[in-house]
Amino acid sequence: MKRVQSQRLPLVVALVAALGLSGPSRAVEPKDFALLDSNRIGGKGGWDYLTTDSSGARLFISRGDRVDVYDTAARKVIGSIPDTKGVHGVALAEAKNRGYSSNGKGNSITVFELSTLKVLKELPITGENPDAILYEPVTDTLYTFNGESTNVTIFDATTLELKATLPVPGKPEFAVSDAGGRVYLNIETEPGQLVVIDGKSMAVKATWALKGCNAPTGLALDAARHRLFSVCDDKVMAVTDAVTGKPVARLAIGDGPDAAAYDPALGLVFSSNGDGTLSIIRQLSADKYAPAVSLPTQKGARTMALDAKTHRVYLVTSDFGPPPPATAETPHPRPSQVPDTFTVHVAGPR
Question: For residue 256, what are the domain limits?
Answer without folding.
Answer: 50-310
